[in-house]
Design goal:
- There is one protein chain.
- The protein is α/β, with parallel strands linked by helices.
- It has two domains: about 5-15 and about 85-215, Rossmann fold (3-Layer(aba) Sandwich), CATH 3.40.50.1000; about 15-80.
- About 40% of the residues lie in helices and about 10% in strands.
- The strands form two sheets. A six-stranded parallel β-sheet has the order 5-4-1-6-7-8. Strands 2-3 form a two-stranded antiparallel sheet.
- The radius of gyration is 17 Å and the shape is globular.
Length: about 220
């Protein structure tokens, strides 16, 4: 059996709009001006801790860091999926996978407490055959353990799966798992980064490019 595995934020779902709102809301509470949308978008894939560092210029050893992080997470949970959408082309891609009896899954570094309610807001999407969060494994990406778990849940060999992501850690994890990889140039790419340098098997600039690529090279 073959399968297609996706990263979540910046690959499957455009979650940045909600992060932009809540980070700037927290900055407003701290009497700080809003940050530009694109500045925040480029940091979303690095997680909530990176957003706190970006928003408040504080590292994790700063005494104020834990409080800011918790307030950000609380705000995010309260506004989860209000502005989040699928990226253009994702819904038709998932429909194509289902129509061809190809299972798909999600492997994310987003904790289950946020991933589960987020996906519950997208019940119109075909159900994923596996959803693996950091809570489910001992090591997160770029370690391949989450990808191995997803393959186990789906019932496919890692070499028969493909991993698609918008961060270098996704490509490293896929390579370590022995999977072909697709880098998403449309995701949350830091301005100093270049996905062409990640060593992925393919690079796409739109989710609309993924299905023809899968058809041509893998299915």
């Amino acid at each position: 059996m073959k399968a297609v595995l996706f990263d979540l934020d910046g690959t499957l779902l455009d979650t940045a709009p909600d992060f932009i709102v809540v980070l700037n809301q927290l900055r407003q509470q701290e009497q700080l001006p809003p940050l530009p949308d694109e500045t925040i978008r480029g940091t979303v894939s690095n997680g909530s801790r990176a957003l706190v560092t970006l928003g408040f210029n504080k590292e994790e050893n700063d005494p104020a860091f834990p409080g800011l992080l918790q307030r950000l997470l609380d705000l995010y949970l309260a506004h989860l999926a209000e502005k989040t959408t699928t990226f253009p082309g994702i819904e038709s891609l998932l429909d194509n996978l289902v129509d061809n009896n190809l299972p798909w899954g999600i492997v994310t570094n987003k904790p289950e407490a946020f991933t589960t309610p987020l996906m519950e807001a997208f019940t119109h999407l075909p159900p994923a055959s596996a959803i693996v969060c950091p809570d489910h494994v001992s090591k997160s990406k770029p370690d391949p353990e989450p990808l191995f778990l997803a393959c186990s849940q789906i019932g496919c060999a890692p070499a028969e799966a493909i991993y698609i992501g918008d961060h270098k850690r996704d490509i490293i994890a896929g390579q370590k798992a022995g999977m072909p990889t697709i880098a998403c140039g449309y995701g949350y790419i830091d301005s100093a980064d270049n996905p062409a340098n990640w060593g992925a098997d393919h690079l796409v600039n739109s989710a609309n490019e993924i299905w023809p690529l899968l058809e041509q090279h893998y299915f």
